[in-house]
Specification:
This protein is of the alpha+beta class. It has two domains: 3-45 and 209-240; 48-203, Jelly Rolls (Sandwich), CATH 2.60.120. It is 27% helix and 39% strand. It contains two helices and 15 strands. The protein has helices at residues 6-46, 213-239; strands at residues 3-4, 50-53, 61-62, 64-65, 74-80, 90-103, 106-111, 122-127, 131-140, 144-152, 159-160, 166-168, 174-190, 194-203, 246-247. α1 packs antiparallel against α2. It starts with a strand and ends with a strand.
């Protein structure tokens, strides 16, 4: 008869488990932690939106003159992201009264004639849903500078977009795009009176191919759980009292 002592076998399993832990799980855990740290280190840069001149096609969601809230020649007017303009889901507020019409397939905003002066210098765009891109075309009464501010969906005060200010000549409409993060409000501000704002359109960028931080966190938890399981198995094996040999 051949005797097979169990305790040495368990000891060998524990030794192999320790080798697996040392050769695979611990390095993998360090790599995952390094990737997560690098990803998180880059994340704050996404919180800085960028303003630039844009010559691309219109974004997916065009803002029209709302047909359900016809308030006009007032400080706050309403746009619609509905193709038939059957909503009032974009609030447009100026520092003075605004006139809103539909022109060229989108909302067309000018200084309201009822106040008798050309003193419109800012426009607050406040859609009911968060956006990650805003496109607009701006014309100025005279040469001046454009600044764009925004509020992040994650909170905080108004921030100045990268690229601001941008100098612009008088009269010629220029198309712009602000993007870079998810925001709730965008403020278009000029150092001189604004002649018109048109071509307003919004967009929501889809996530890139990189996993989100929560995915990396789940990976880390998974590696940690496997490592703890291996370590626990090793500890339980060492704590098991010697058993009597078993015959076969």
């Amino acid at each position: 008869m051949i005797l097979f002592p169990l305790t040495p076998i368990k000891r060998e399993i524990a030794i192999r488990g320790e080798r697996v832990m040392r050769l695979f799980f611990r390095p993998a855990l360090r790599i995952a932690a390094g990737i997560l740290a690098a990803f998180c280190a880059q994340s704050p840069a996404l919180a800085q939106a960028t303003l630039a001149q844009d010559s691309g096609t219109a974004l997916t969601t065009v803002i029209h003159d709302s047909q359900t809230n016809a308030a006009n020649d007032t400080q706050t007017v309403y746009g619609s992201t509905d193709l038939l303009a059957q909503s009032a889901d974009v609030q447009l507020t100026g520092n003075t009264n605004l006139n809103l019409t539909e022109s060229g397939g989108s909302a067309f905003i000018t200084d309201a004639p009822n106040d008798g002066t050309l003193n419109w210098t800012s426009l607050l765009v406040d859609p009911t849903t968060d956006i990650s891109e805003l496109q607009f075309t701006l014309a100025l009464e005279q040469a001046g500078q454009l600044n764009v501010y925004y509020l992040l969906a994650t909170g905080g005060g108004y921030q100045l977009a990268n690229g601001s200010p941008i100098s612009q000549a008088a009269g010629t409409p220029v198309q712009y795009l602000i993007n870079g993060d998810v925001f709730t409000v965008v403020v278009i501000s000029s150092s001189v009176p604004i002649a018109s704002v048109t071509g307003l359109a919004t967009g929501v960028r889809t996530s890139g191919s990189l996993p989100e931080p929560t995915t990396w966190a789940m990976m880390l938890l998974g590696f940690g759980a496997i490592g703890l399981a291996v370590k626990r198995r090793k500890t339980d094996t060492r704590a098991t009292p010697a058993e009597n040999p078993r015959r076969r």
